[in-house]
Amino acid sequence: MRILTIRHVPFEHIGRIAETLDSAKVDCTYLDLYREPAAACSLDSFAGVIVMGGPMSANDNIDYIRRELCLLEEALSLGKPVLGVCLGAQLLAKAAGANVFRNPVKEIGWASIHWTEAARQDRLFAGLEQPETVFHWHGETFDLPRRAEWLAWSDSCRNQAFKIGRAYGLQFHLEVTPEMVSDWLRQEANCADVAGLADPIDPGANVTRMTELSATVFGRWCEMVKSDAPARRPN
Fold first, then answer.
1. Is residue 93 one of the residues assigned to a domain?
2. What is the pLDDT at residue 154?
């Protein structure tokens, strides 16, 4: 069983998700359309799709962003399991017909998210603590797509998680390790964001709970992908 993973920059890789895929014996195939916009890709041979983050915008008028939106529209129409992280969640929302726009503030660093009532019954998030402290790094947000269930919010950003059928969008980052956060803080593409921070970020904060959270949420997502239930088209 294979998962297609779309990256936008090398340093925003799947992180802790890789551990879960390995445990579930699910292979990961990277598609880097930012390097090869014309690379051949068919969703037929993949059981699900993961779309990672990046410093660009879902509204950028560039070839590979337009192509990703088409792939996500196809995945939604086929009822494929999708996991969109940060920019990936914004792209998923846009592919589902919602607007993506600048958030009132940049949300960067460790902050709490709160689960909605729907999340408490959800196959990925049921039983998690209320609230949970997770890692954020985004300046844009999105309207909730028309067919979506609202799953999480924060004080700085209302739409932190949603799902449409078997497609999930997470505005926050459960996949990061301390090493990844340290790397992001050094990246040239992030310099402006880092310079604007009021307080330094501790890459190793919340590491124990983040390890537990990522194993639970991504493990449940892998179980969904491997489920024998047929893919359903969203209503």
1. yes
2. 98
Q: Where are the beta strands (DSSP E) in the chain?
A: 2-6, 27-31, 48-51, 82-85, 100-115, 132-142, 149-153, 161-164, 167-170
Q: What is the pLDDT of residues 127-159, one digit of tens each?
A: 999 999 999 999 999 999 999 999 999 999 999
Active site residue 173: yes
pTM: predicted TM-score of the whole model, two decimal places? 0.94
For residue 174 the two structure tokens come to: 């459960």
Q: Active-site residue among 86, 107, 157, 222? A: 86
Please give the tally of structural domains in the chain.
1
Decide: residue 125, CB within 10 A, 0-12 exposed, 13-18 middle, 19+ buried. Answer: buried
Residue 31 lies in a domain: yes
Residue 232 lies in a domain: no
**235 in any annotated domain:** no
Check if 157 is active-site: no
Q: What is the pLDDT of residues 15-35, one digit of tens each?
A: 999 999 999 999 999 999 999
The residue from 12, 68, 107, 175 that is catalytic is 175
202: containing domain: 2-226
* Whole-angstrom distance, CA of residue 99 vs CA of residue 145: 8
Greatest Cα pair distance, the chain, in angstroms, is 48
Query: Which position among 12, 140, 173, 222 bears the catalytic label?
Result: 173
- How many helices and strands in the chain, by DSSP H and E? 7, 9
CATH number at residue 111: 3.40.50.880
**Is 41 marked active-site?**
no
Task: Quote the CA–CA distance of 54 and 58 in Å, as a whole number.
Answer: 10
What is the mean pLDDT of the segment spanning 87-92?
Answer: 98
pLDDT of residue 228: 47
